[in-house]
Automatic annotation (TrEMBL):
Protein's recorded name: CRAL-TRIO domain-containing protein
Record PANTHER family: PHOSPHATIDYLINOSITOL TRANSFER PROTEIN CSR1, PHOSPHATIDYLINOSITOL TRANSFER PROTEIN CSR1-RELATED
SUPFAM superfamilies tied to this protein: CRAL/TRIO domain, CRAL/TRIO N-terminal domain
PROSITE patterns: CRAL_TRIO
Length: 224
């Protein structure tokens, strides 16, 4: 079962690949595969914009030390209850990032460290994609036992920025489960930060039967 992705013009892809090949031949760390180039084209629309966005991402990855984040065992251990990339996938084969909101509080975290941990999770999940089949992710926000003190707007802003700038078109679906009624106020704020395309990928799941349309509920952790 594959997804219906917005088509990319072959000529646009050819031009972008040509430009990137010149750069990657000189510096192999700049390389992006076919699926990545097409994601940038879908997100940034034109060859020029996609090219500039890729260069900015490559610069950011180098400066942020993305490839070495998995070696930061202390960071990973410290924030391991905030999010987890699951061993299982959703029903179309997407890797799943599970986020239990009850474990979040803006009072007990370093925004810089938690953002690094989020990047680590996005990297881990992205590497698990079977890109020939599906090259995007399922993010699950579990709002069970959620209170307003768990609402960390700055972390969400950072996640949205990362997904839009450096992981474009990586979000396949965002499931919000067990949402309390009062979360609608928070969602009104968050939705204002999302473009129409991203907002359309957010789904509130109100029952286990609805959840089964996306994933098998038993795969969600009970130990976080």
């Amino acid at each position: 079962m594959t997804e219906d992705l917005a088509p990319v013009k072959e000529e646009d892809y050819r031009q972008l690949k040509e430009r990137m090949t010149l750069i990657a031949d000189a510096d192999p760390t700049q390389y992006h595969n076919e699926y990545s180039l097409k994601r940038y084209l879908r997100a940034f629309k034109t060859v020029d914009n996609a090219f500039q966005a890729i260069l900015k991402t490559n610069k950011w990855r180098a400066e942020y030390g993305v490839v070495n984040l998995h070696e930061n065992k202390e960071l990973i251990e410290k924030y391991s209850n905030k999010a987890r990339v699951l061993r299982h996938r959703d029903i179309v084969g997407r890797p799943i990032v599970y986020i239990p909101a009850k474990n979040h509080s803006s009072n007990d975290r370093s925004i810089d460290d938690l953002t690094k941990f989020i990047v680590y999770c996005l990297e881990d999940a992205s590497k698990r994609c079977f890109e020939e089949v599906v090259d995007n992710l399922c993010i699950v926000f579990d709002l069970n036992n959620f209170t307003l003190s768990c609402m960390d707007y700055q972390v969400l802003k950072n996640l949205i920025w990362l997904l839009s700038r450096h992981y474009p078109e990586r979000l396949g679906v965002c499931l919000i489960i067990n949402a309390p009624v009062f979360f609608s106020g928070c969602w009104a704020v968050i939705k204002g930060w999302l473009d129409e395309n991203t907002a359309g990928k957010v789904t509130f799941v109100n029952s286990e039967m609805d959840l089964c349309q996306y994933l098998i509920p038993d795969i969600l952790p009970t130990d976080m």
